[in-house]
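During the reporting period the student researcher (J.K.) took over the structure-prediction task from the postdoctoral fellow and processed the backlog of single-chain submissions. One of the processed entries is reproduced below for the supervisory committee.
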Amino acid sequence: MERIRVAGIIPMEDGFAFMHRKDVKKRKDFQEYYTFPGGGVEEGETPEEGILREVKEELGIEVGIVKKLYEMNSEKFKQKEIFFLCDYLGGEFGTGDGPEFNCDPKYIDSGKYLPEIIKREEVENLLLLPFEIKEKFVEDIKRGKI
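J.K. obtained the following structure tokens:
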């Protein structure tokens, strides 16, 4: 079975919630960038269950799924990626306690994970990965779809 990664697009305040990645040793191309919070779907879990769990682990907040926004296949990482638009429901932003925050040796070369809210008008200036989704996302922001 191919790996499925899920990611949340979460409007918060006057911007969106992102994961700022710094000092990433395992990537030769980018050591610092922004990405949508999320991760791999676990065995026996639906993509919808996966995104709710991942957002809680990474950001410490509860969200509700509005709809699936984007889907792409990544040849580089051999996975399907599904991006869900989510509503913030509650919890304290930045209190995630997933394995990436707990000195799990599996994440030794993954660098720092820093939850940040970036203002809507600043999104197009970010080094936001994946590029294919950033283009669609910025276009949807400009068109008022998100």
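The committee noted the following: The two ends are 32 Å apart (CA to CA).
J.K. will present the remaining backlog at the next meeting.
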